[in-house]
Amino acid sequence: DTAVSQTPKYLVTQMGNDKSIKCEQNLGHDTMYWYKQDSKKFLKIMFSYNNKELIINETVPNRFSPKSPDKAHLNLHINSLELGDSAVYFCASSQEFLRGANTDTQYFGPGTRLTVL
Amino acid sequence: GEDVEQSLFLSVREGDSSVINCTYTDSSSTYLYWYKQEPGAGLQLLTYIFSNMDMKQDQRLTVLLNKKDKHLSLRIADTQTGDSAIYFCAESIGDDKIIFGKGTRLHILP
Question: Given pLDDT bands bounded at 50, 70 and 90, which one contains residue A60?
């Protein structure tokens, strides 16, 4: 069974459109993340949710809005897509977050390649 | 299949060097990375190495790549309490795939 899944795997769309990328984890984890992989293939964190509550919100345009209907899902909605939004977006999950000095292994999805034309 | 493996735990005395090891299976990787995860934070890129290099040094960090053995290591000189974190090894394959290890938790002993 896939632990962290993302749909779609590839997304090609026109500038100005609104699109969503879905992420689901079946690991029973409490925390989920969205990362953007830039052109140099570095991962930069965008958001993190713990039990449906926003924990990390890095400096991303407010056109990006995460939505967590339940703790197994963290979807990324992007309004008014721009050329610079083209990238691979990775979802991840971990069991715990902000537990003193403890952190947990993150499990990553396969990534979604977004291409904005 | 594609896989990245690393040991789960490492304990090191403050002031000593830490060496975190990683092995990977896909020989077509282009970049290999080390990411650091501190409490309450997402992954932060620590350093990376292009697959045609065998060593990269950046202040206290030294990355060694043995492409023949598909082995990557991260050496942290003069380990300090602030280095306590989980360190993830990762490799990128092609344009749209990045494979992560499960992370090595580095514990600093006083």
Answer: confident
